[in-house]
Write a structure and sequence with these properties.
Strand order of the largest sheet: 7-4-9-8
Number of domains: 2
Shape: elongated
Largest sheet: 4 strands, mixed
Bound molecules: zinc ion
Radius of gyration: 18 Å
Number of helices: 3
CATH class of the largest domain: Alpha Beta
Strand content: 35-45%
Helix content: 10-25%
CATH architecture of the largest domain: Alpha-Beta Complex
CATH topology of the largest domain: Nucleoside Triphosphate Pyrophosphohydrolase
Distance between the termini: 24 Å
Length: about 180
């Protein structure tokens, strides 16, 4: 039971225990009237291809889903745009630079961290990148691999949203 309506018990503003879930999307405090909304967090994911047209997947270094495969990317910071987040994440994870990017599509996900469900909107971009010769695997990834339509193991991908970004890019039906 990691949904916000099950986990959050006290008003984050006044500390009252009369912090009442209105539905899965909002809470209201009966003492201070603070109205708290559970919004979707934006996250970005990059499709990067090697010279053979294979797609780069990263190996997750930490929970959740440690060891499973993912696309490069991550959460968008407060006061940050999607494009900036993508450039920042690719720099942090791979030490690579984004030269151009093209929107693919977006898919919802539920990301459970610290026994708490974060609702996300995962936004996929096809990226042209540079800096292959100085690529450095770091931050929250432990390795990378390249896959094609023929070699991908869909069960090794951490989330349905990431599968769907790859499926969209390859023109396959989404789940
Ligand atoms: Zn309150």
């Amino acid at each position: 039971m990691t949904l916000p309506s099950k986990v959050l018990q006290f008003c984050p503003k006044c500390g009252s225990n009369k912090f009442i879930a209105q539905d899965e999307k909002s809470f209201k405090c009966d003492d201070c009237q603070f109205h708290f909304f559970v919004n979707s967090a934006a996250a970005v994911a990059a499709i990067i291809e090697n010279s053979k047209g294979e797609v780069m997947l990263t190996v997750r270094a930490f929970a959740p889903n440690k060891g499973m495969l993912d696309l490069p990317g991550g959460f968008v910071d407060p006061n940050e745009g999607l494009e900036h987040a993508l450039k920042r994440e690719l720099h942090e994870e791979l030490n690579m630079e984004v030269d151009s990017l093209k929107y693919i599509g977006s898919f919802p996900n539920q990301y459970v961290f610290s026994e708490y469900t974060v609702f996300t909107t995962d936004v996929g971009f096809h990226c042209q990148v540079s800096g292959w010769n100085k690529m450095h695997i770091q931050d929250d990834i432990s390795d990378i691999t390249f896959v094609s339509k023929e070699t991908i193991n869909w069960d090794s991908i951490a989330s349905t949203s990431i599968k769907n970004i790859i499926r969209s890019y390859w023109g396959l039906p989404t789940e």
